[in-house]
Design a protein that fits this description.
The chain has 16 helices and 8 strands. The longest helix is centred in the last third of the chain and has 19 residues. The radius of gyration is 24 Å and the shape is globular.
Length: 377
């Protein structure tokens, strides 16, 4: 049953593992590890998982000698799968994430552990962040969009799910402290995702019935280079990957099994008095299709297609909304895939005619094609 209460049964003193994923951060890894060692509540182990760095990252990490630090080095750069292996090595009651170029303030772990011990219904706790650059200098207020993104206010579980659905990830991964039992029950981070595996995990935790909480103090320093070199969403290809992964991660919302839960996440939905729980995915697909983003459009198509295999549910949709086979077909055919196909044909045609016609005639034909495209929407 979705939204089952997540409660810790731990009766012994909790232990804390720190997972540090390392890749080509020889300039920053020492500061990151030293910030973990300087905590007022000392971590019990620090697992450093190097993802086949090509610089001196491993050597520098090994140079920070402490009994709690364990450095593992992989021979292949795999990203997510190597992070998953590092997570498997963490044995603590709580697992903290500290990326190899980020830094913690001294009291971070103590405040987070205290909160989780006093709130057994909470699965993960985060902090606000202070953005720093490659020199450790803070970004001026209002000069980077992440300053606003990582300042989310606390919400209840349903409101967090709504936020994840529409707005994405409000949490800095390096600020996270997570109950080990969340991974035990839900599985590890999903290595298939390159950019959004942390958002996928936050949705899974919340969907399962745990609360999440933000300590509204900047206890984490998140490093953003002035040239944007460590921000993966700066190119068209990474933006495309982000959109694709987001559309797949939204499938976590298929775990909503009742119209009651659906309405708690999306109270604006207009649901027929004759509807039953077989229409959860139907309403979810319709609602997603009304959003402007490509990820929601793709998710809407996949959700409607998945739901459409339920003949009894389609009969209920027809009774409640007159939604029949023609409507189902039109829903699937009049979406982003059609737009992609149209643009693909248009681009090939434009490339072909540009080889043989003068520039001014090409512009005229492009104008005609644009008008034809608009008339077919």
């Amino acid at each position: 049953m979705v939204f089952s209460q997540g409660v810790s049964n731990n009766t012994v003193k909790p232990s804390v593992s720190v997972l540090t994923s390392l890749y080509n951060h020889e300039k920053f890894i020492r500061e990151a590890l030293e910030s973990a060692l300087s905590q007022t509540l000392q971590p019990d182990e620090i697992v450093v998982m190097d993802d086949a760095s090509s610089d001196e990252s491993v050597k520098v990490a090994q140079g920070v000698q402490h009994s709690t630090i364990h450095v593992y080095s992989e021979s292949m750069n795999l990203g997510g799968p190597n992070t998953m292996r590092g997570l498997e090595l963490c044995r603590g009651t709580f697992v903290a994430i500290l990326n190899s170029d980020d830094v913690w303030l001294n009291d971070k772990l103590r405040k987070q552990v205290s909160y989780l011990e006093n709130h057994p219904e909470c699965g993960a706790v985060f902090t606000y962040v202070n953005l720093i650059d490659e020199n450790g200098t803070s970004w001026s207020e209002g000069t980077n969009r992440h300053q606003a993104v990582f300042q989310a206010k606390n919400r209840d579980r349903y409101e967090w799910l709504r936020y994840f659905f529409f707005s994405g990830n409000p949490f800095c991964a390096s600020s996270a402290l997570i109950r080990r039992e969340c991974f035990d029950q839900l599985g590890p981070l999903d290595g298939r995702y390159v950019q959004l595996q942390d958002l996928d995990m936050w949705i899974r935790i919340t969907m399962h019935g745990y609360d999440v909480h933000v300590i509204q103090e900047p206890l984490t320093k998140y490093r953003v280079m002035r040239d944007g070199s460590n921000m993966s969403a700066s190119t068209l290809s990474t933006k495309s990957l982000h959109t694709f992964e987001y559309s797949k991660i939204l499938r976590n919302f298929w775990k909503l099994k009742s119209l009651t839960d659906l309405k708690k996440v999306f109270p604006e939905l207009q649901i027929s008095a004759d509807a039953d729980d077989s229409l959860v995915l139907f309403y979810l697909a319709i609602h997603a299709s009304k959003q402007a983003t490509v990820q929601h459009q793709l998710f809407a198509l996949e959700t409607m297609s998945y739901w459409g295999g339920n003949i009894m549910a389609m009969q209920v949709a027809h009774k409640c909304h007159g939604f029949g086979l023609i409507d189902y077909r039109n829903f699937l055919s009049n979406g982003p895939i059609r737009d992609l196909q149209r643009r693909g044909v248009r681009n090939r045609l434009e490339t072909f005619i540009s080889r043989f016609l003068p520039f001014h005639l090409v512009q005229i034909l492009k104008t005609v094609l644009l008008r034809l495209g608009d008339s077919n929407k």
